Amino acid sequence: MYSVQDVEKLKTKILDNCSKCEGKGRYLTPEGFKLCGCIDEFRRYVDMLNANIPRSYWDLELDFKYFTSQFLDKNSGSLEIIGKYSENLSKVVETGSGLFIHGSYGVGKSFIGCSILKKALTQKYKTHFILLSELINLAHTALRDTRTKEFLFYIIEDVDFLLVDEIDKKYKTELIDTLLDELFKKRYYSGKPFIVTSNKEPAKVLEGFGKTIYEIFSERLINVPLVGESFRPEILKDIKKELLGGLNGK
Question: Which residues pair with 129 in a beta bridge?
């Protein structure tokens, strides 16, 4: 959940500091006034803020330049699934199909999942990103707070694309098991897609859940394994190159 202050900061950064329209939202051309592109940019960022997409992924596109040729070769089948999934979001919504993206730390699971959410936002779908630990905390708070309960049910039942990150990091207690069983069953019955990411393969993760959840995940989620080294150094290299280039006036 974001605050008014978060939106105000975006407004100052994108709208008020726009050099083209100087915060007016439109600018004069020989043909007359035109709406400035900063308005669409502002809306795009607010959409990502509302979807709880981590800021580190806001300006990153699903660009294969970050991945080595070896990674692309090893994961060609999985990347084909991801590509077709992203290109057919309306069909995905109809079928309620999801993804179980798994692989080692830094291999690109959350990055890929958030890229799908961002694309869904451009097609006017409601999306939401949440860590499993955050989902558990929400579920606990919802037991005693009505507003939190309403927000939780919005995420589970109303959002078109839900991404639950780090699903293998589960704190096992009887209450948590009960809460997660109820939440995932509600998502399943809503018929809407959900994407999960994990450092472990499905069989090792799902054995920690009850039989019902195991069957739901097995039925609805397409297995998407990713193998290889972390791609984060490549992103850092790209950011440093852009930053240093700007500092050097290049």
Answer: 163
Domains of the chain: 1-50 (no CATH), 54-232 (3.40.50.300)
Indicate the helix (H) or strand (E) that contains 233. Answer: helix 232-247
Which regions of the chain does DSSP assign to beta strands (E)?
26-29, 32-35, 98-103, 127-131, 161-165, 194-198, 221-226
Percent of the chain with pLDDT over 90: 54
- Report d(CA 62, CA 109) in Å as an integer: 11
Which amino acid appears at position 234 of this protein? E
Report H helices in 13-107: 37-50, 69-74, 76-87, 89-95
Q: How far is CA 182 from CA 47, 186, 187, 210, in A?
A: 28, 6, 9, 11
191-238 pLDDT tens trace? 999 999 999 888 887 777 777 788 888 899 999 999 987 666 555 555
Mind spelling out the 3-state secondary structure of 25-49?
Answer: CEEEECCEEEECHHHHHHHHHHHHH
Write the pLDDT tens digit of every residue in 19-67: 889 888 888 888 888 989 999 999 999 999 999 999 989 988 776 666 7
